[in-house]
Design goal:
The complex is a heterodimer of chains A (134) and B (383). With 134 residues, chain A is mainly beta. Chain A has one helix at 16-23, and strands at residues 28-32, 37-38, 52-56, 60-69, 83-90, 95-98, 113-120, 126-132. Chain A is built from 1 helix and 8 strands, in the order H-E-E-E-E-E-E-E-E. The longest helix of chain A is centred in the first third of the chain and has 8 residues, at 16-23. Chain A is globular, with a radius of gyration of 16 Å. Chain B is built from 14 helices and 11 strands. In chain B, helix 6 (156-170) packs across helix 11 (286-295). Classes of the chains: A mainly beta (134), B alpha/beta (383). Strand 4 of chain A pairs antiparallel with strand 5 (193-196) of chain B, so a sheet runs across the interface.
Chain lengths: 134, 383
């Protein structure tokens, strides 16, 4: 029976710098002079006067909301049940989908302060995840 | 130039709903089309437009149902397989008829969802949410419910009230998948969690089936078999517009982006929400239904739980809604579930679930629910 692997992120021209930074264990976002931040190249829809570049962000944020999977929707995640999905609101404003690591699911709460950590998945791919700020 | 009341639904053809492994989506589509033509009293060659949507697990092809039914469509369009696209199909059909591209159009949804092999291909490269284990809009719904619990004190009992209300409607509709299955609040509270805090009864059904709806000009509809159901207006918006200004709005965590959709629809219709007698909300999840009640203004933000728990969605309540049991208990045909029931209510075909004297119906759709935004739309029907 062929081994079923977890999926890898969609890395493409619009977001390559994000994933290359993640490999360096840095969190970057594509930012506009108005303060809006995106995880991919785009025209800024917040201010209409785009002046944009990739910038490093602090990696700090808080849990905006979260849920806990108690049923596997993909076979590669069967052994991870129960696992959490969190929407993390970075201090700088944008929201990222990620997992909270380094604590039990029952300890996660909305507003919990978190900081980014980096999980090396393959030689090419590192996933930013978040852990509670100690 | 206003389209209000210029076009009307004249035919409804619905197949059985449930596990139907012997029927392909093309066969389901063909059956639905034949039933709709019969319902309207039309011949295949009376129809010249065809807009079709496939469900989860794939849908029908463009040519096979048309070949099998002999419908000589000059216009064959496919809409994508997302929950908002029933109302989009209405807008497409009316736009086409306004510009003379067709005179009578079939809107079709066919699905063999129970035959699908996997939700996503295993080991595929190129799925960023999937890399974190994010699979499907149930994640967004569960996270939305968690926000509502945190911000507004939403309780599981209130979500359960949504599930129970809709199940009670389905228990009175012979064709509903959950017709024979009653549930109590204890059943709901003790049900297994799927994506916490949402349990089994917070998720819509997964089933096979097809529905074909025939829309044409109001004058033509008035000369056909069934009472016409007029389209008064429709509107749509997409949360992607908000990206940059409001990251949480992309995911509808602050409420669905219904404001512009409602303004357009109610503006076209020339009515307010006070005129709505019955509503069919897109209910892929209990929390989506509840959040839309608030977003459309039927109650204040954070009041949806109490609104539903007080029985307001039931017959005789302030807002009878989802009167077949819809996606949670009747059957999931994306937004066609709500559109079909809206048409039936306006025709007086709701059976034991018919809302007395209902004249105007709101039908909503939501679609997308991934990390890059999704649509909210609605249409308004009247008898």
């Amino acid at each position: 029976m062929p081994e079923i692997h977890k999926e890898l992120p969609a890395i493409n021209a619009s977001n390559r710098p994000y994933w290359e930074a993640a490999r360096r264990h840095e969190l970057v976002m594509y930012g506009c002079c108005c303060g809006a931040l995106y995880s991919h190249v785009t025209e800024c829809t917040a201010c209409g006067k785009p002046d944009m570049k990739w910038v490093r962000v602090s990696g700090r944020g808080e849990v905006f909301t979260f849920c806990v999977y108690r049923q596997a929707f993909h076979p590669a995640w069967k052994n991870d049940i129960p696992y959490n999905i969190a929407y993390v609101k970075l201090d700088e404003g944008p929201i990222l989908i990620s997992n909270i690591v380094g604590c039990d699911n029952k300890d996660i709460y909305i507003g919990m302060p978190v900081e980014v950590v980096f999980e090396d998945i393959t030689d090419e791919v590192t996933l930013p995840k978040f852990r509670p700020v100690r | 130039m206003s389209i209000r009341d210029k076009y009307a639904f004249a035919g409804v053809g619905l197949t059985q709903l449930g596990r139907l492994p012997e029927m392909t989506p093309d066969e389901l589509a063909t059956r639905a089309i034949k039933l709709a033509l019969e319902d309207a009293g039309l011949r295949p060659d009376d129809v010249d437009g065809y807009i079709y949507q496939g469900g989860i697990g794939g849908g029908s092809s463009d040519t096979v149902p048309l070949q099998m039914t002999g419908v000589p469509a000059a216009m064959v369009w496919q809409v994508t397989s997302l929950g908002s696209y029933a109302n989009v199909a209405v807008a497409m059909a009316i736009g086409a008829m306004e510009s003379g591209l067709c005179n009578t159009c079939i809107l079709l949804h066919a699905s063999s969802a129970t035959s699908r092999r996997s939700i996503v291909p295993a080991g595929a490269v190129g799925n960023t949410p999937g890399a974190y284990g994010w699979y499907g809009p149930g994640t967004t719904a569960a996270c939305m419910a968690r926000r509502f619990m945190h911000l507004y004190g939403l309780t599981r009992e209130q979500l359960g009230a949504v599930a129970l209300t809709l199940r009670e409607y389905a228990n009175k509709r012979p064709e509903a998948i959950m017709h024979d299955r009653r549930i109590t609040m204890d059943d709901y509270l003790n049900a297994r969690m799927v994506i916490e805090p949402l349990c089994l009864y917070d998720f819509c059904l997964v089933n096979d089936g097809a529905v074909a709806l025939i829309i044409t000009s109001a004058e033509r509809a008035r000369n056909l078999r069934k009472p016409p159901v007029y389209v008064m207006g429709y509107g749509m918006d997409h949360s992607l517009r908000k990206v940059g200004k409001s990251p949480e709005a992309i995911h509808h965590f602050n409420g669905f982006v219904t404001e512009k959709a409602a303004q357009q629809a109610f503006g076209m219709a020339g009515i307010t929400i006070k005129d709505i007698d019955v509503a069919e909300f897109y209910d892929a999840f209990t929390i989506f239904l509840l959040s839309q009640i608030e977003s459309y203004g039927f109650c204040g933000r954070g009041e949806g739980g109490a609104f539903v728990a007080a029985g307001n969605l039931k017959p005789g309540g302030q807002l009878p809604a989802n009167t077949s049991g819809t996606s949670l208990s009747w059957g999931y045909l994306m937004g066609f579930t709500q559109l079909t029931e809206g048409i039936r209510q306006m025709r007086g075909e709701g059976g034991e679930c018919q809302i007395k004297d209902a004249e105007i119906c709101l039908v909503t759709g939501l679609g997308g629910m991934v990390d890059n935004g999704s649509a909210a739309n609605c249409c308004i029907l009247r008898r």
